[in-house]
Amino acid sequence: MSTLPVVATIAGSDNSAGAGIQADLKTMSALGVYGVTALTCVVAEVPGKVCAIQAVEPQIVAAQVRLLFEAFPVAALKTGMLHSRVTLETVCAELEREFKALELTGQRPPLVVDPVMVATSGHALLEPDAMAVYRERLFGMATVVTPNLDEVAALIGRPVTTVAAMREAGAELVARFGVPFLVKGGHLRGDVALDLLFADGRVEEFRAPFVPGVSTHGTGCTYSAAIAAELGKGKSLSVAVAAAKRYVSSAIGGYLRWEKEGGATDALHHFARPN
Fold this sequence. Notes:
The protein is an alpha/beta fold. Helices cover 39% and strands 25% of the residues. Helix 3 links the parallel strand 4 (74-79) and strand 5 (111-113).
């Protein structure tokens, strides 16, 4: 019998394989867990450009999630791009059902919620009426929620442009939703990429050098997948975030670049070795 932890991702597909389910699977493989998937939508995109989004039918999303829990001892899971209200409601209903059954046996897996709202290119990835489902149902099930600063601004209704504002916003989010939040500060564009974990009544800092001149996408997907992978291996939330921060920083620092017709396409290097 295999002892390899199984970690699930419920997210969208990125055909350029830098973000979404493809990035999640690369991350999980690199970190030594067995990744399984429930596909929510198909996205035609490359770094810097989103051309089209096609949602998967809700009953297919539900069937994927249900079968994963039937067949595998899911040790942890994450959500990524859910896109629409109906998809969010479908995922919440399935997770509520599965978690209720697993809580009776004390085997309810940790859940990392990456509230994917806007692509790095600026393209909206979440339909406007879907936000309420995050607030009212999904966040309450989370072990940790991992918004970037644009997503934090959408949740609290004001921009977040300083570390002091990050601290204020994180405290507000924890008070409002009652679960830990990892507020990611990479969008501040300073010399250091600073993230703040609000959990257990305290704030913990995670730092890495900011890597300039890299135009890629998928860092949020990769980060949340890495946290889920580490949680699936039995690590505490703080230890999981620290390991995930090292991993995503290495993926950024070891970035890949291809040049074509005078342009360049960058991608995270999911198999770069952490420093």
